[in-house]
Amino acid sequence: MPGSHRRHKRLLARVCAALATTGLLAALLVGAAQAGPAEDFYTPPSPLPAGANGDVIKSQPSQYSNAKATRIMYLSRDAKNKRIAVTGTVIVPDKAWAGPGPRPVVAYAPFTAGMGDQCAPSKTLAGESSGDIAATFQNTFVDSLLGKGFAVAQTDYEGLGTPGEHAYVMRLSEAHTVLDVLRAAQRLPGTGLPTDGPLGIMGYSEGGGGAASAAELASSYAPDLDIKGAYAGAAPADKAKLAKSLDGGLYVAFLGYALIGINTSYPESGIVENLANDKGKQLFEAARKTCTIGAVTSYMFTQSSTLTKDGRPVSAYLNQAPFDKIVAENRIGQAKPSMPVLVEHALLDDAIPYENGKQLAKDWCAKGASAEFRDLIAFTPVGAHAMGALSASGNAANWLNDRFAGKPATGNCGKF
Q1: Which residues form a coiled coil (predicted)?
Q2: What structural domains and CATH numbers belong to the chain?
Q3: pTM here?
Q4: Greater pLDDT, 392 or 22
């Protein structure tokens, strides 16, 4: 084994050890794993009922420590504006809201959970199903919000838990599902939450992309929502650049996930049929069933050129039809957010390059947004993407708390 490969293996072991430590702590907060939920909850009625975006189709009690949790299925829209059913969780802390006005609700856009239905955050947050250690990081973000007294509206996104494939990092689909889970939380009976109260958005990694997409599409898709601020950490804003930086690296599985996302939202692209060789098709089939850590460890350091029919890397296809238009449509930073936004990114992020977050904030500044960009502190350069999540969870909750308290946001456009 080459020396560089051995070093990468050792680095991965250290990152996984850190993940495991955090996972054990989070597991103590939610208790031991329980039997999985009745899977028929995740099967939408056919046809879908009439209703507006964000209407609750069905709900059932879920579980979360020191909170009232409700699993929900709600109406939303995919990338082609087709009506879909999406699942998630509404979590209201037992802790009383001590701030001004009614209790705020924050949409939590989860980071990469995986592609298999067993990875759906509405299952793993409740201690159900068979996700992996990375899933317990989701609890860290939720706990930071509940600790401030906020209610949490968590989406599973399109195709996680529910039938079909997950539309991984697809801008329109994820924006719709994040915004509609806020509507669902406001309309869910028995929560004590206001129907028109203050709202926020928070996400990291894939969730940073989902949060950022929701922030910039809120004024056109959900102008009825009173969103006070949106936090986007380590957002995968530019998929074309990510196709190069992920290829052959530790997190190349995320590139595979993105291709599945494209195949889901843009089936006419024929990305699997036209690009993938037999090995690539086999990888696609296997990856569809994985959660995060399983995918990372199974596919790390794979070169995408070994998976295509003509031996070219995936990045070589993205500037030609039909992929050029798909990549352009999914670039985040195209519209001005109507609320204050905070973008954070670790300088040594080893999964999503730092320039993705910085350029996103610059793009929003150029459109006149109230935007702030900060370097995110990662406690170690090893696994900086995963370690940055620990800082991001607290930073996001504190920043949103200031927005709900009525403190003015301090943008720093032109200073980074």
Answers
A1: none
A2: 14-236+339-404 (3.40.50.1820), 239-328 (1.10.260.130)
A3: 0.91
A4: 392
